[in-house]
Design a protein that fits this description.
- Helix 1 packs across helix 2 (about 35-55).
- The chain has helices spanning about 20-30, 35-55, 85-90, and strands at about 95-100, 105.
- The termini are far apart.
- It has 3 helices and 2 strands, in the order αααββ.
- Strands 1-2 form a two-stranded antiparallel sheet.
- It has a domain at about 15-60: Orthogonal Bundle (Histone, subunit A), CATH 1.10.20.
- The chain has about 110 residues and is mainly alpha-helical.
- Strand 1 (about 95-100) and strand 2 (about 105) form a beta hairpin.
């Protein structure tokens, strides 16, 4: 008889996220959630983690690591210098450019 392998996966039940945990994640994403949305997100986050755990259980021994799922195009290519915009041209349509520094000004997004 051939090589018979039986895989037994532990089914991990993830506890629902607390309101505080969902609110903390929402705050990181600058989201304001209603009570209904918090409950829905708690369930969805638990489902995501349960699925991630299921994927982690898959036996991948003997399967080489994958650097890219694209097989038609090489993942890495040599850099090639090509014509591009000057700093002034790049900043011309910026809503609030820092032209002297050659930078784009953007709203602060991290604490």
């Amino acid at each position: 008889m051939g090589d018979l392998r039986i895989y037994i996966f532990d089914i991990v039940e993830f506890a629902m996220f607390t309101r505080e945990q969902v609110n903390a994640v929402a705050a990181l994403a600058n989201l304001e959630l209603t009570a209904e949305e918090i409950e829905k997100c708690a369930k969805q986050l638990a489902d995501i983690l349960a699925y991630a755990d299921e994927v982690q259980q898959v036996d991948t021994r003997g399967i080489p690591p994958t650097a890219s799922v694209l097989t038609r195009f090489p993942a890495d290519r040599p850099d090639q210098v090509q014509p591009s915009l000057t700093p002034g041209e790049a900043l011309a349509n910026a809503p609030d450019p820092a032209a002297r520094a050659g930078l784009f000004k953007v709203p602060r997004v991290i604490g």
